[in-house]
């Protein structure tokens, strides 16, 4: 097999498989920024994990784990899917990555009895190490001499150092798509685990973040690492005889591709049926994955306060809440979705009438419907408690037909890119959010349209392709 000059590594790859009734494997193209970043990026090898039994079967069937790209539409990227044993994957992904690291970086630990670093957590950690080592082995095997490797996200924090050990000739980048926890929060991890994670990322030549805040937090955490020398002005960390540069690379959306997708027949059909359902009422829209960071329950509380304080909106507004199911293997995610649905039911019971649905909530996977909702939105509510970037805040203004007002959490990375023309709120302040929704609904159409056009311009200034190119260029 030929060796690659550019490699990307991430937990979730650009294609996944399911098994049809007759036993054949059916490929499905994944969405997201990374897939569009790689379209047209030239010859790249994308190394990812097999996420399900069907993926593992596909990986085993193909020589060397290389997935045949014929008809899979993943741009020019070749894909190598790693057949990691199911139990190891489960503990690394659900245990360590999603139940520990993701919560730490989003500062979300206030659950009774969690986090808890016990025997089970130690097993999760071992699996996480094995999972990262499997990536490092694959990358070390497939990279040409001096190749560039872009390792993605908190699932793979250890891989850069492991890879450097195996292949000191490579140029390695690590990119965090989440926030990075500030030291006071990062320190809740066992000391040796925190040190291992920092040393892992510091195995990279370049550590990239979506916003200035997250990069600064990372540097501040590195101050805690014995033996690390942080230069804040130069944004470098010297550790174990090697220097890591820290950089900020914002990520936006591909405007032309998104607009063309949003004008396809399946989206237009959903627009028509949504309009039929809500009539000419004003629309407050939110689109999220059902992640605990998205703050859907406080968003609903703000809508309730709007209806309580401003009865003039009764019958004249509908709130659309469309959510994609996420990480349903974790009890805490399932409980969160239940809390969203319960709160929604309360609001419907309190305000709904025979001829007015104040609230429509759907939890399923329907991207065309999200695009239809963006197109029709008068107000887009994006209020995460903490978010690496948040691309909903960037997609909505681009797809909006007549201009929507963005109500945006100041704790989303996107606030740094879009702040001025959005109405920014403290995501914990429900009353402030309710007041912003009211202000947004009252905003004159021409002001709204002008602000939305500027938001769309900024949202498309950093398309995924430029973002990836910046990461790779930082390695020169
Ligand atoms: C969240 C994080 C991303 C991460 C993604 C993975 O959205 O903010 O940084 O890449 O989860 O999601 P997955 O469905 O693959 O667990």
How would you describe this structure to a colleague?
By secondary structure, this protein is of the alpha/beta class. It folds into 2 domains: 4-251 and 466-474, Rossmann fold (3-Layer(aba) Sandwich); 255-460, 3-Layer(aba) Sandwich (Rossmann fold). The protein has 18 helices and 18 strands. The strands form 3 sheets. A 10-stranded mixed beta sheet has the order 5-6-4-1-7-8-9-12-11-10. α11 crosses α16. It is globular. The two termini are 26 Å apart. The site of 6-O-phosphono-alpha-D-glucopyranose has 8 residues, from loops. One of its GO terms (biological process) is trehalose biosynthetic process. It comes from Actinomadura rayongensis. This is Trehalose-6-phosphate synthase.
In a nutshell, what does this entry contain?
It comes from Actinomadura rayongensis. The protein is α/β, with parallel strands linked by helices. Helix content is 44%, strand content 20%.
Secondary structure layout:
Layout: E1 4-9, E2 15-19, E3 25-29, H1 33-38, E4 45-49, H2 53-61, E5 66-67, E6 78-82, H3 86-105, H4 119-142, E7 143-152, H5 159-166, E8 171-176, H6 183-186, H7 191-201, E9 206-209, H8 212-222, E10 229-231, E11 236-239, E12 242-248, H9 255-262, H10 265-278, E13 282-289, H11 296-309, E14 317-324, H12 331-351, E15 359-363, H13 367-376, E16 379-382, H14 392-399, E17 405-409, H15 414-418, E18 423-425, H16 430-442, H17 445-459, H18 464-473
Parallel strand pairs: 1-4, 1-7, 4-6, 7-8, 8-9, 9-12, 13-14, 13-16, 14-15, 16-17, 17-18
Antiparallel strand pairs: 2-3, 5-6, 10-11, 11-12
Helix pairs in contact: 3-4, 4-5, 10-13, 11-12, 11-16, 13-14, 14-17
The protein binds 6-O-phosphono-alpha-D-glucopyranose.
């Amino acid at each position: 097999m030929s060796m690659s000059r550019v490699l990307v590594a991430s937990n979730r790859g650009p294609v996944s498989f399911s098994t049809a009734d007759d036993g054949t494997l059916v490929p499905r193209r994944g969405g997201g920024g990374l897939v569009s970043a790689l379209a047209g990026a030239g010859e790249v090898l994308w190394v990812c994990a097999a996420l399900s039994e069907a993926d593992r079967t596909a990986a085993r069937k193909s020589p060397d784990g290389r997935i045949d790209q014929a008809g899979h539409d993943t741009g020019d990227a070749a894909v190598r899917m790693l057949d990691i044993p199911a139990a190891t994957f489960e503990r690394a992904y659900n245990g360590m990555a999603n139940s520990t690291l993701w919560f730490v970086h989003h500062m979300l630990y206030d659950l009774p009895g969690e986090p808890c670093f016990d025997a089970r957590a130690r097993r999760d950690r071992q699996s996480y190490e094995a999972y990262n080592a499997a990536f490092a082995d694959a990358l070390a095997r497939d990279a040409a001499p001096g190749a560039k490797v872009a390792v993605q996200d908190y699932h793979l924090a250890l891989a850069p150092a492991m890879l450097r050990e195996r292949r000191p000739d490579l140029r390695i980048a690590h990119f965090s798509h989440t926030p990075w926890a500030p030291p006071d929060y990062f320190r809740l991890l066992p000391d040796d685990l925190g040190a291992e994670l920092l040393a892992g990322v510091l195995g990279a030549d370049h550590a990239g973040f979506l916003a200035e805040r997250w990069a600064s937090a990372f540097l501040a955490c590195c101050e805690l690492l014995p033996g690390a020398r942080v230069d804040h002005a130069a944004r470098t960390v010297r550790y174990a005889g090697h220097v890591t540069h820290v950089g900020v690379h914002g990520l936006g959306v591909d405007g032309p591709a998104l607009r063309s997708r949003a004008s396809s027949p399946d989206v237009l059909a959903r627009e028509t049926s949504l309009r039929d359902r809500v009539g000419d009422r004003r629309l407050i829209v939110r689109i999220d994955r059902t992640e605990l960071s998205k703050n859907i329950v406080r968003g609903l509380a703000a809508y309730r306060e709007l209806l309580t304080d401003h009865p003039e909106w009764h019958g004249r507004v509908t709130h659309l809440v469309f959510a994609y199911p996420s990480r349903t293997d974790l009890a805490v995610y399932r409980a969160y979705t239940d809390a969203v649905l319960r709160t929604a039911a309360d609001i419907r019971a309190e305000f709904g009438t025979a001829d007015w649905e104040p609230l429509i909530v759907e939890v399923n996977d329907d991207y065309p419907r999200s695009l239809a909702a963006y197109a029709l939105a008068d107000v887009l509510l994006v209020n995460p408690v903490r978010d690496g970037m948040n691309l909903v805040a960037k997609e909505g203004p681009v797809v909006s037909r007549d201009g929507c007002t963005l109500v945006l959490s100041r704790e989303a990375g996107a606030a740094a890119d879009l702040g001025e023309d959005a109405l920014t709120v403290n995501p914990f302040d429900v009353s402030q959010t309710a007041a912003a929704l009211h202000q947004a609904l009252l905003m004159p159409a021409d002001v709204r349209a002008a602000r939305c056009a500027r938001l769309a311009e900024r949202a498309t200034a950093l398309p995924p392709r430029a973002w990836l190119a910046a990461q790779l260029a930082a390695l020169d």
